[in-house]
Amino acid sequence: MRDNTTTDRGQAYTLEGFISAMVVLMALLFALQSIVITPTTGGLADRTVEAQMQQETQDALMIAATADEDKKNLSEMIRYWDHEDEEFQNADDNGQGDYQATSDSDSEFYDEFVLGEIMVDRFTESGMSYNVELVYWNGSQGEYESEDLVYQGESESVTASYTVTLYENDSLTTDSNMNISDEDANYPIPPANDDEDAVIYNVVEVRISIW
Fold this sequence. Notes:
Elements: H1 2-66, H2 74-78, E1 81-82, E2 87-88, H3 108-112, H4 114-122, E3 130-138, E4 143-150, E5 158-167, E6 171-172, E7 175-179, E8 200-210
Antiparallel strand pairs: 1-2, 3-4, 3-8, 5-8, 6-7
Helix pairs in contact: 1-4
């Protein structure tokens, strides 16, 4: 009788151990699935959204570069300079000489530029923020520099860009009698080099960062 009782207890302990091991194993498998599957799925979704944002921004730049409408294209946009106040024409009252483009109701960026209309309609109205930066080569300093056209802050962002060639005989959009190369223009983008016979003034990268 004692032997049967001991055997029954041993079998019970073995069964309990087996069940406990199964519970631990199932918990471990569930945890591994949670660790591996969830971030991967989310990561793919994030990358898809970022790729879509980047493509839409790139499309906006291409449309604005080739636009032939009442509003100004990219080249005309970056030459929209007030040589007297030494800031972009009718810049927002932020002390920086650029645009904030936070709404379409009173924004020079929206009213004057093809790019501005697209960006405000597509991204500003959706609650998104962006910067538009003009990147160029400063030959006298031997380095790349930048000028803000639109500044709304800083954050992790998706970027897209388009290059615009400026020529020595290009005039300010705000004053057709003054070339960007004229000293009195006070144009913020300097010539790429000191060659007086150069035809190309500089090549400007219009870079958009959006988040």
